[in-house]
Amino acid sequence: MDEVNNSVVSQFVLSGLCESEELQIFLFSFFSILYLIIILGNILIILSVISDAHLHSPMYFLLANLSFVDLWLSSVTTPKMIIDFLRESNTISFGGCMCQIFFGHFVGGGEMVLLVAMAYDRYVAICKPLHYTAITNQRRCIGLVVISWTIGCVHSMSQLAMVMDLPFCGPREMDSFFCDLPLVIKLACMDTYVLGLMVNADSGILALICFFLLLISYTHILVTVCHQSLDGAAKALSTCTAHIMVVVIFFGPCIFIYLWPLNITSMDKFLAVFYTVFTPLLNPAIYTLRNKEMKVALQKLRSQYLNLKWNS
What is the pLDDT of residues 80-96, one digit of tens each? Predict the structure, then answer.
């Protein structure tokens, strides 16, 4: 890959989140626990949806796919970030850096579209309940998931195509804990101002379009429910507020990093942590723990596990 790239640089150096050894030990323990919770929480959601026949519906099918995407999203950068807390020198190969860029944008772009699909599903269920089964059947939901992965792949390939042929001859230090495309472009031995604008526009516009579609969908849901009943409006407001919080936490960093870059390294790191770690952690809590059917399914799964363990 280095020969194709005509690059002298075979690896990049990552500065990480901090330089203090004491703080690094704390962060290692903290993020290790968070990552374990993310993995276990999302796997439990997927297993619950698969094992419980009552959850074989479009809404829970999309929810299980969201958990699957979150497993990928959290695994693109978090494991290496955790391991780097124990290393004195944090490096990543050129190929590893390109892989982080590809899978980060692939999974991130796919999740954006998948969240829009989930909001559309809720919009049809609440605003057009009589036509719900006809509009959002299992086949159409599979199509929406395929579309989300396809858009994510196309978006990621377009991003990677912009950086693969750039000449890298030094410097090779990035003030980040993972390979982020805008930072990699700045290390190229050429003027990348126009290319940087194209990269930011590609990611930022996708995030902005999905963000506005989500806001429009949830606003329409709230307006519809408010005209139906006060109790329903209160419940919908609580649910939509939680969902919008996840949307803001997920899309906010993307919009500020790519569409409206602040050029503040510490702020970029803070936003990137929210994007890659806290969103996959919040999704199970917001979409699952507030749902009675999911709670029942999780209890059934726990009972099945205990019975199996007891019988063995």
Answer: 999 999 887 789 998 89
